[in-house]
Specification:
Layout: H1 8-24, H2 50-59, H3 61-73, H4 78-99, H5 110-132, H6 135-146, H7 152-165, H8 179-189, H9 194-199, H10 204-218, H11 220-242, H12 246-272, H13 283-300, H14 304-324, H15 329-338, H16 344-370, H17 378-382
Helix pairs in contact: 1-3, 1-4, 2-5, 3-4, 3-5, 4-5, 7-11, 7-16, 11-12, 11-13, 11-14, 11-16, 12-13, 14-16
Amino acid sequence: MSAHRSAAWPLSWLAIALIAYATLYPLSGWHWPDARVFSWALPKLRQEFSGDLAGNLVGYLPLGAILCIAHLRSGRSVPVSALLTVLSGAALSYALELAQFTLPARVPSVTDWVLNTLGAAWGALAAVTVHALGLIDGWHRLRERWFIPQAGHGLALLWVWPLGLLFPPPLPLGQGQLWPHLHVLLVDWTADTPLQRWLLPEDPLTLWAGTGALLHEGWPPLLESLTVAAGLLVPMCLACAVARPRRLRLLLLSGAVVVAVAVTTLATALNFAPVHALTWMTMPTLVGLMLGAMGAVVLVGLGRTLCAVLGVALTLALIVLIHLAPTDPYYAATLAAWEQGRFIRFHGLSRWIGLLWPYVALAWLLARLLHREPRIPAAVRRGPSA
């Protein structure tokens, strides 16, 4: 097997986390299940809805496909990979169904477990079919030629990046505004305890908002343009830190611009109605996109290590800028109204991906700098002389 780290494993763990979040949402009201209700044999519901049945089937299909590919890429045989995938999907579904006994808003069902297991099996079948067609081996050969061996987690981050944009950030492409959510959690966890005053002598959120308001009042176009540019350049730096050929870099950087514009437009249409789909394209935003595109031209010719260094700096800049961004009351009210809707579970997932993505990318880029791939001597790359 190659020394390349497969992106299938981190994507598998992400799929498991997303399934657990969606299954156990709203993650509140936990209680010890009543012994008269709890049963190791999952109950059969009297009434079931076709939408829920389809969701349970389709929800586990991507997990089955990705997990089976991860096993295959680890060198396991086709029967073993398929069997481990189905057993893992069944075990995960059963554990989550049992956990639903502890949530008042969730109802466990043996039908859900069967459909989840069947979805994982169908995903494994799809992965085995792709493997039999030689597509997985073909991708493996391309990856060895196109990307560095340590690219697995970096590629997974690039795949996940657009999902975080589906929940619109305070400014276009401005992911990572995590502190307000942490502040609320700290207040809740330290309520009615001396720790609250000790940990939070002043409201840091107010300080951030005050500083952001002053900056926003002074030069809002510059603030927004820099945030958009940083939000676009961070995934570009990550892509250039793992890609080998310059042509591939050009393709990835162009794709990043297209994906950023398309997903942001889609998210705006979903959240603020289709008629407002392009309202995010203000002059400061367009200037930020232009700055990001100009930065992409520079990144094409830089070394991978330097791209990783720039990625770290730009990620830190993005985190600072997005926390300085002022709060738009109309934006907050619109998102609050959306969060009461029926798409909250999926939307909540994309929201957390957007909040956490810059920090995970920052950790990966730092790890990339600390553990650089060994250089291959030119004589070895050319092979033995005649």
